[in-house]
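Extended Data, panel c. Modelled sequence:
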Amino acid sequence: MEILKKIIKDKAKVLDESVLKVDTFLTHQVDINLMDLIGTEFYQRFSNQPITKVITLESAGIAPAAFVAQKFGVPMIFVRKHKSITMDKEMLEASVHSFTKQVTNKITLSKDLLTSEDCVLIIDDFLAQGQAALGLSDLCHQAGAKVAGIGIVIEKSFQEGRLLLEQKGYHVESLARITSFENNQVHFLNE
């Protein structure tokens, strides 16, 4: 997605050799027009699958996942990092370690939101180590749902996430694949 790459080049900030700050258009303030384009792009890439639900992890994945779900005409589920008092005891749970935040969260999802009849598309803002996508896929498998694929807005291709997911048999589509942050600049695959 060339428009996404241009926005990353123009607006993102490299904080160190592994951290990219995208809070002006994705993770804090959301560029709605960009999210609409992202929704369309993922729809085109996964339209050959019978998607019944789109799932993401709160909170930065919610905006792109909502637009993807809208394009498919299906519900979007966001998995919580902290259990709410309104959630009943029938929960699916998995552990996800965030290398950026240096914390492990127990992610939770109500059992009644996913079934063995569902074909799920996982959407996330970033792919680095692959832990969020693995945690979400674990919840899907616990529910008996099929994971049709994993859509990533920004992938850090210099980290092991994609390899780990592909070794487990997942179809991964990333819209912007970054190979390095050399000299405090973003470098994309095939650049």
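The longest strand covers residues 146-156. This feature is highlighted in the accompanying rendering.
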